[in-house]
Every structure is written in structure tokens, then in C-alpha cells.
Amino acid sequence: MREGQRRILVVEDELTIAESIAARLRAEGFEVDLAHDGPSAVAKAEQVVPDLIVLDLMLPGFDGLEVCRQVQAHRPVPVLMLTARDDETDLLVGLAVGADDFMTKPFSIRELAARVHALLRRVQRNQRPGSTIVLGDLEIDPVERRVQRAGEPAHLTPTEFELLAHLAGRPRAVVPRERLLSEIWGWTDQAATRTVDSHIKALRRKLGADLIRTVHGVGYALEVPK
Fold first, then answer.
1. 128: which DSSP letter?
2. Distances from the Cα of 187 to the Cαs of 68, 98, 127, 141, 198, in angstroms?
3. Which residues pair with 104 in a beta bridge?
4. Cβ-based neighbour number of residue 150 at 10 Å
5. Please, are residues 60 and 85 in contact by the beta-carbon 8 Å criterion?
6. What is the pLDDT of residues 41-99, one digit of tens each?
7. Across the strands, what pairs with 221?
């Protein structure tokens, strides 16, 4: 692997799909490793320490949710989860265990590669030094990537952290869903605003339902906690 080259772990039991994804990501300049079931995915992630995981939800051995739980328990890593069902329950459970983004099969390999690049850019932004944000009982440390509320730590995925920090940078201001999609995800597809809504639900579950206010038909605003 060349110095500075990003490493992607592709976990997919359908070999044709796995090889297609791997071929496209290698053409994009990534080093790619493959795993085809749950147990081997966890072992491979520990062995190669990937920068990002493309993870199928339905796998032999144990499913992608369990893979995500076990991998994230050791270290935070961006996860793009693939699912054959457009089911909000799968989406919310996946976000709860540490997935950052979802794609529903069938999908465009070109779009998958674009999502991978966007996820990695978000992680790189999160790693830049910055001042700690304190809003009432909410504290966001961008250097150590730590968040706590009322002294209680919260484990956030890279995307959740970026979304929270973005809203915290303009407390009480209403930020449209479309702007969040553009500035955080790098997308312009307004049909994907459900992705924003699902991440907001995850933040509320982890930090309190009172933290983020919904402005119906527009977007979201971070309330300043007491």
C-alpha cells in the first residue's frame, strides 16, 4: 500500500457485487480488502485497520449490525451500510450501532464511490483542530472528538458528530435540510432528506429529545441547553 493511500474493507457475501465494488474503489485509488461473512469481517477489520467499511446488512455467520457493533466497540470507523430493504427500522438500528450512511440495493457503483469519498472527507474535517464548543450543559470537543451532556459522554458516529457540530456552530438558527445535505453529505439530491431526519433522530436518542428543534417544512435548529 502506498503511503497516504486509504484502505477500504468491503464486506459483501454476493461475490459479483463484492468484486464490482472492489474494482471501482481500486480504480479510485483505494487499497481494498474483502470479507464475505460476519466473523471474517470482524477479524479482517482488526487485522487491516481500514479507514472505512462498506458493509452489507445481510451476511452469513452474523449480520452487518453485529459486525458494526463489534468493530465500533474497538475504535470508531466510518461505515457505509448496504441493505436490500428500504426499511426505516433497519436504518435507525444501523445508525444506533454506528453506521454513518446507507445505500439500498440495487445501487449505482459510481454513486457508492462518491459516497465513500464524501464520508472520508467528513472524517478528515472532524480531525481538524478547533476550539471546544460549550452551550449550556452540552460540550463538544473537536480535537478529541468527544461530546458530553450534563457530564455524561455520548458516543457519536463521525456523521452524527459533524451534524451536531454544524448545528452548534449556529445555535438557535434554523438550518434547512437541503443545506445540511449539501454541506455535510456533499449531496444535492433533495429526495435524500430522510437521511438527515434519521441522523437527527439518532442524536435526539443519544443526547435528549429537547436538544434539536424541528421546524416543519424547513429544517432543524439546535436549542441552547440549560
1. S
2. 24, 21, 21, 26, 16
3. 83
4. 12
5. no
6. 999 999 999 999 999 999 999 999 999 989 988 777 889 999 876 666 666 666 667 78
7. 213
